[in-house]
């Protein structure tokens, strides 16, 4: 178990043992991440909070180094909590695993207990909350924007907790202790009127009415004299009540004995029974619900089918003696709502209007009314809820619904599925708990854990679905259940008798949501199920049913409001997604499944055309990132077209030829799709077949298959017409791929001829900048084979400049990468060449990190292994080599393919060097850890050599 404390000097415990975090910088960095409260913290925010500076390349490198050290300090149990995030990092800890998160939960719970007439419980909870404070929050950090707001919020919450604790002590009759604490509290914060109000009330109840009025006059003088303002309405009202000796001011329960629990009062027992199963993973939501009901009189818990809205509401109500539960799932008419509420309150035979009888029973007493499953009664609720809240000032109403009612004053608490991981409170944790209930003595194996993760992912982390899957564990293993639930709902069992779920299956729960939709929204929803991994609004607009009325934004907003669609608004653009369970249900009931798939495939084709048109310009990186975000949809669209429109599949796969290479993990799949498309339509237009062959040559080259790459490039050249201007760009790309293949094959004179032919073809045309830069790569290789290193350097420097001017970002890095290999292979001056190569590789890796090109980035890191080993860093070289090999195997690429450019001599030297490296006993590194390892080691070596050279010069 991991617990992080920041309410004072930062401290981390792992399984009860304090972790040694290192010096002040790691402590500040961890404190800054903790201030993110589980959200990603950008590199810029970390730079400001930790170093009080702007983000630079040096600071970025320093952050990576410190993160690596912190992960090592946290050990195997804790390192996973420090996660990489887009443009930053996050400390992935549940609120209950941090003292500030636990403090917030306890304050919310204590406030709820005080509101719910449980002052004794409130005192215990608030005292335990305040005991967590050890000093200034995030003591290691200054007043950066990232920290100051969070710190101010926590300090304010502590002030509120101090006041609520004294209010709870007054409510339970512990007046003397409350007055003593409040006398000090008003000195510490003299402008907080709540403290004066409580102090005066405590003095009045102690029989010191004159002293109480004197304190009220004292605070008036303070506020008027120093701030020029009168006391607020609460203090003024309290003074008036004291002057007329309002008897209700003295009504207070007898103080309970300090060391013995008070006997249970039968009239105070909870009326909503708690379910017999353990609630897992909802501590934060329960606290949020208690806090919401503490400040709002109408709260609605919303969320998709099966997410656990009813269970959350029942769990909260079970802790309260004033709660009454009204189940509305089977209520079909508005006229039946009033009698159902009356029955829940014990009014069995109301005369006249049931709501009038309910209001008479409630009066001004404090009550919580839980209205469960209200989505089909949204329009009727206004005529019930608003009059009751107006006539019953002590009433609070909690509703559960797939969507909000839209009533004035409503506070909405959106309930999300459980996170899918192995931590406490996760979907997997829930599944394991329910399996243990039906299989005594069962303990999960590693295989069970993998299967459980697959089950929970397939079921979207929905508690209802997970419990139904666990019911099958009586008869099947988790691996069997995982196989079935990916595609079929019959792999799920039935709810246990006595379950709070109003539905008898997951299908019924989803159907209940979908059937409630108006016809237009339902038709729109059924067009969205082919999207895999989500979609932007433009995609939804493209697949809307013909003749659909209304704006696409309104349609999407309605589906989000009704909890059948989710919206991720944290990024740009907003991304919408159907839960997998809803996707499968919509697919199964779609009467025009073929038409829906055609519409999705048509959008994929249009989207690919729009984005790949940017490949030849400065927006290449943007286009690659945008396409990468839709890979799941692209694969689905191509799969459809391979079966129904193979010529379109060929055009799409060929257009994406640079996307497949930009993502190391996509190279093998891209090669397979290109081959399938080429085989499916041998009579397709020449340009489409040539583009696909060029893409096949590119993929084969990245996978270390130069013979296949050469055959594909030659086939493309054979198809293209040298005299047709429409073929110019494809012809030059085919020449480039032929040169690369021959270089991989170390073809000598054939390569020289190919490179010169490529250059001549470029000279006869006006090609885009990325092809002009690519031409120079082949010429540089010819110069290297001739032994002319100055010409190699000059040629690749020109290539880098052209790539920079035309926005061919990856071309800049590839130029640096090739020059680094040539410098490493040059026999003269090993150390100077290796040092310069190392600097070039650092620059290339930095570019590849900013623009996705996983295959070539691995090649740069592979070269980094050689450079580090040459420069006397064998341990770092060994670990880097192990990591590169691991990621290359996962991605199906060959990072050593550039070795052949530099001839067999370099291959032999590197093989000997690798054989001399020390063994690596640690596990594989994550991608960002691998990059950080190289960056840190290379930066340190460069700095060390620069200092040595400077000393020699002196």
From TrEMBL:
Pfam families: BTAD (PF03704), HTH_77 (PF25872), Trans_reg_C (PF00486). One of its GO terms (molecular function) is DNA binding. Residues 1-93 form the OmpR/PhoB-type domain. Residues 1-93 bind DNA. Gene3D superfamilies: P-loop containing nucleotide triphosphate hydrolases, Tetratricopeptide repeat domain, Winged helix-like DNA-binding domain superfamily/Winged helix DNA-binding domain. InterPro entries: BTAD, HTH_77, OmpR/PhoB-type_DNA-bd, P-loop_NTPase, Sig_transdc_resp-reg_C-effctor, TPR-like_helical_dom_sf, WH-like_DNA-bd_sf. The keyword DNA-binding applies. Keywords: DNA-binding, Two-component regulatory system. GO terms for biological process: phosphorelay signal transduction system; regulation of DNA-templated transcription. CDD domains: BTAD. The keyword DNA-binding applies. PROSITE patterns: OMPR_PHOB (PS51755). Belongs to the AfsR/DnrI/RedD regulatory family. This is OmpR/PhoB-type domain-containing protein.
